[in-house]
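Encode chain A's predicted structure.
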Amino acid sequence: YADRLVFVEDAIKAYARMDVQLPSGPDYFAYGNEDECRQALAANGFDANSLTFETVTVEWEVPSAAHLFESECHAGVRTAALLAKQTPETLEKIRKRIEQSVGNYAHGNAFVVPFAAHVIAVSK
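Encoded structure for chain A:
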């Protein structure tokens, strides 16, 4: 399956300058691995044995192929900061690549993009 993060990540890796200054922050996929998630939560006082970790895929209906790129530019945090440091030409390449990927999911007057999320529950 594909999800919106893959569209964005692939386009950014293909065209963006990654050596730009960004504020420090946690790993983007820090809780994407069950074992690493369990360890991080246990190190912060949670009961690692109570953890449940489930990956679900839902469909995200977006109004246009450009919507995903625009949401990353304006609603993301670190991705938005990275994109803000790119040249207009690079942004155009990234936008086109994302729009081409999203275009494969046309459904009527919208686009239905698979979106994966991890549902994590743990006790303190």
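The chain is about 45% helix and 25% strand.
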